[in-house]
Amino acid sequence: MATLEVDKLRKSFGGVQAVRDVSFAVAPGEMLALIGPNGAGKSTCFNMLNGQLRPDAGWVRLNGQDITGLAPRKVWRMGVGRTFQITATFGSMTVLENVQMALLSHRRRLGQLWTPVARADRAPAEALLARLDMADQAARPCGILAYGDLKRVELAIALANDPKLLLMDEPTAGMAPQERVGLMALTASIARERGIAVLFTEHDMDVVFGHADRILVLDRGALIAEGPPAEVRADPRVREVYLGA
Ligand code: ADP
Ligand code: MG
């Protein structure tokens, strides 16, 4: 069964049809890229998937369960994680403490609060940081981290909530090209290992074509192409949108 199913999702702002009858699905462990020019409707789609925006029409299902129009908090509790363009860490706390906090909040969500806080979450937080190649940064305050490292902490925090679906809106914005590839390669390998469905938007086409299993192309609110990277790259409509040819 697909982790996420989206059926004829629609949203207008005044006279602007931002998203027009968009349908797609994401499988467990799949990396699905949503691309399209500025204003194509990518962020609007994301906002409808995590409950920030209520669709005008259409359905969103998570593991077969209808989550259309549910509040962001409920959607998050059901296993939809999201990373943001502006990172949300506590700058004066260390990397390890930030991840421990996220694990604590996840256990609270599951109603598991009988174990002492620091002891219960320290080992899993360290394991998660090691998986993200960040063991050497664990004791550093988040406030002094390089931007690329902060993005990885953000990924660790999202993963601490054990998401079934991870939404990443321009996860590599502001990062150096090699760092981008590194972050997405890591995301892809963890997604496969844990069966997390990942939906991401991205401007860097090297990242998209290098790490997406499948690509959706939006143009003025409508899906104009969908398929594996090689197929989408060769699609004349996609070339037209991107090259203005
Ligand atoms: P993308 O993320 O692909 O750049 P968006 O989803 O942000 O595109 O925007 C799609 C369209 O909807 C654009 O025309 C944008 O101006 C419009 N739009 C997005 N959010 C709002 C909003 N809150 N109010 C009015 N118009 C909006
Ligand atoms: Mg956007």
Key traits:
245 residues; alpha/beta; Rossmann fold; 2 domains; six-stranded mixed sheet; 10 strands; 40% helix; binds adenosine-5'-diphosphate; binds magnesium ion
What does this structure look like?
The protein is α/β, with parallel strands linked by helices. The chain has two domains: 4-79 and 163-243, P-loop containing nucleotide triphosphate hydrolases (Rossmann fold); 88-146, no CATH class. It has nine helices and ten strands. It has a six-stranded mixed β-sheet with strand order 6-7-8-3-9-10, sandwiched between helices. A hairpin with a 2-residue loop joins strand 4 (57-62) and strand 5 (65-66). Helix 3 (95-109) packs across helix 4. The protein is globular, with a radius of gyration of 18 Å. The chain starts with a strand and ends with a helix.
CATH class of the largest domain: Alpha Beta
Strands in their spatial order, largest beta sheet: 6-7-8-3-9-10
What is the rounded Rg? 18 Å
- Bound molecule types: adenosine-5'-diphosphate, magnesium ion
Number of H- or I-type helical stretches: 9
What is this structure's SSE topology?
Elements: E1 4-13, E2 16-26, E3 31-35, H1 42-49, E4 57-62, E5 65-66, H2 72-77, E6 80-83, H3 95-109, H4 117-131, H5 147-160, E7 165-169, H6 177-194, E8 197-201, H7 205-211, E9 214-219, E10 222-227, H8 229-234, H9 236-243
Parallel strand pairs: 3-8, 3-9, 6-7, 7-8
Antiparallel strand pairs: 1-2, 1-4, 4-5, 9-10
Helix pairs in contact: 3-4, 3-5, 5-6, 6-7
The protein binds adenosine-5'-diphosphate and magnesium ion (MG).
